Amino acid sequence: MAVASDSFRLLAGELIKKTERLRDMLAVVGLIVMGKVAVDTSIAFLSAVRIFLLSKLRSLSNFKEKYGPWAIVTGATDGIGKEYARELARLGVNIILMSRSIEKLTRVAQEIEAEFHVETQVVQVDFSGGRSIFDKISEAIRGKEIGLLVNNVGVMYEMPMELCELSQDVIWQHVNINMGSLTMMCWLVLPQMLERRRGAIVNLSSSSSVGPLPYMNIYSASKSFEFIDLCGLLLASAVS
């Protein structure tokens, strides 16, 4: 009986030691998880501060002095482009609105002038027109000190389709609007920004740019171009 009792105590002791080691390992894992949660929470909090607080503080600064008195917004009559134009106007920046419809351009320009008391200029242009349209744009913005450019104009498929089902018009629209317009608008305004050493360019892309999109491959490829073009633009500006 004494031998059995000693064996039991020995076994129990070994189990207790293993349990303690397991407990210590779980404690370490718990600390790591808690640390990750704390870091993620801190990052989310700082991001929220940056987005919702610092952006508000920045909005109090004089955008005209910081960037320049005029902003160009392409695709400015609806959706994101229109809201960019309104927000920049709220900050006191004069707006050059570019889009296809003169009726929409005129209406939005009148709304912005009445609400925010800034100057506006409208440029009716169809960005699917390719190279020929940029002489008109260059002439329209001649003499304007462009501090901000928002490349918002874009096009996408009406519905998912295979490449061979697309018309040539749709393909060239994606090339000219999603890729050509962004590059050429940067080419038009970037020299004066670099010369003044101030200005900002916003290129709107899409989550579709992260990889091939089945049945919308031309669209996703053109959006990838926008993202890569933006990265190259930032690098070139930093080097300059």
From TrEMBL:
<dbReference type="InterPro" id="IPR036291">
    <property type="entry name" value="NAD(P)-bd_dom_sf"/>
</dbReference>
<keyword id="KW-0521">NADP</keyword>
<keyword id="KW-0472">Membrane</keyword>
<protein>
    <submittedName>
        <fullName>Uncharacterized protein</fullName>
    </submittedName>
</protein>
<feature type="transmembrane region" description="Helical">
    <location>
        <begin position="26"/>
        <end position="53"/>
    </location>
</feature>
<dbReference type="Pfam" id="PF00106">
    <property type="entry name" value="adh_short"/>
</dbReference>
<keyword id="KW-1133">Transmembrane helix</keyword>
<dbReference type="InterPro" id="IPR002347">
    <property type="entry name" value="SDR_fam"/>
</dbReference>
<comment type="similarity">
    <text>Belongs to the short-chain dehydrogenases/reductases (SDR) family. 17-beta-HSD 3 subfamily.</text>
</comment>
<keyword id="KW-0496">Mitochondrion</keyword>
<dbReference type="InterPro" id="IPR052149">
    <property type="entry name" value="17-beta-HSD3-like"/>
</dbReference>
<keyword id="KW-0812">Transmembrane</keyword>
